[in-house]
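In the design runs reported in the main text, the only information available to the sequence generator was the tokenized backbone. The following block is the verbatim input for one such run; it is reproduced so that readers can re-run the procedure and compare outputs position by position.
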């Protein structure tokens, strides 16, 4: 027993005794950030029109819904779960807002109700996963179809476009004297909240513990079901917020709004370093991955590349990321096993 305890402690100390520059720079997240800057520099030099401030304005507007939803999705996937219904929830929130405004309700009240719908949808997912005990993959595939079906059923093939000019202009407005869209401000507020929640609170540590081992987290005092339920509620609420922005940005509420958005979000979260098995992830890597995909897509579109080829490139990046992470984890486990054998061997 004494030997095992000493060995474990030694390995942990060995990991944290690495030089600070290695612990900061030799990470997957830093690799994504470095790749983002490389792609920006290459695109600015080689793609005509990319380096224009207006290009960055549209780029940020395009990725804003993904940035929003990627925040709670990081928490969900770190617990070892997944939520495939976020795109449909964004669409349902869009339609809810449009239908209520069409019925005569003020936009502000309609938006609040749409956010409540997002909370209810996330709570429904969380209830089925935590209380009923169903796998999140199956649950959210079902609610993906359910939420989208309700959205299409509410408006059919029609679209609502009669929204207040003030809110539509605000969704596309720029910060004074810059090409930076105003939507960056609420995103940064949410980012600070999620960074603090995820990386600097007991709740955030509980998320990592649940992802690494539900049983160990339970015996450590973490309420596993409550933690999972909370992150699903957050995912539903933020997806609804993204759906409202999507509606105002394009000036239209339709049943097919935000179709496929969930796949872009999950691709960015995994590319940003969140383990598909749970227990690992950092928000700065996820944000860099969202921007990387956005920059690549923008540069390729300006170069005349079709959307199908862009999807192929994005998918290839995702596959390389997952395979590379698995290979890195395997090599790290081999090194750790070698260290354990060395420490456990008797002294000569």
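Verbatim output:
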């Amino acid at each position: 027993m004494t030997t095992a305890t000493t060995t474990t402690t030694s390995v942990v100390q060995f990991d944290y005794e690495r030089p600070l520059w290695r612990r900061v720079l030799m990470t997957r997240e830093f690799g994504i950030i470095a790749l983002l800057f490389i792609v920006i520099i290459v695109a600015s030099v080689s793609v005509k029109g990319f380096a224009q401030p207006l290009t960055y304005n549209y780029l940020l507007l395009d990725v804003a819904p993904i940035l929003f939803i990627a925040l709670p999705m990081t928490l969900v996937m770190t617990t070892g779960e997944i939520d495939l219904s976020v795109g449909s929830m964004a669409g349902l929130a869009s339609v809810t807002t449009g239908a209520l405004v069409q019925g005569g309700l003020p936009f502000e009240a309609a938006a609040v109700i749409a956010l409540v719908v997002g909370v209810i949808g996330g709570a429904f997912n969380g209830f089925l996963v935590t209380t009923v005990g169903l796998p999140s993959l199956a649950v959210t595939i079902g609610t993906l179809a359910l939420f989208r079906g309700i959205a299409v059923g509410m408006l059919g093939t029609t679209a609502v476009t009669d929204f207040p000019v003030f809110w539509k202009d605000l969704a596309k407005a720029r910060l004074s004297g810059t090409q930076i869209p105003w939507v960056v401000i609420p995103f940064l507020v949410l980012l600070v909240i999620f960074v603090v929640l995820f990386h600097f609170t007991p709740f955030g540590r509980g998320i990592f513990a649940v992802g690494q081992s539900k049983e160990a987290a339970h015996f450590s005092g973490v309420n596993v079901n409550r933690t999972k339920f909370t992150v699903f509620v957050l995912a539903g609420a933020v997806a609804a917020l993204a759906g409202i922005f999507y509606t105002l940005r394009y000036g239209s509420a339709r049943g097919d709004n935000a179709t496929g958005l969930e796949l872009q979000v999950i691709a960015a979260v995994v590319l940003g370093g969140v383990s598909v098995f749970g227990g690992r992830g950092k928000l700065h890597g996820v944000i860099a991955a969202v921007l990387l995909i956005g920059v690549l897509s923008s540069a390729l579109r300006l170069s005349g590349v079709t959307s199908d080829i862009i999807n192929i490139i994005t998918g290839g990046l995702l596959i390389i990321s997952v395979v590379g992470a698995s290979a890195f984890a395997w090599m790290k486990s081999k090194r750790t096993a070698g260290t354990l054998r060395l420490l456990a061997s008797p002294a000569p």
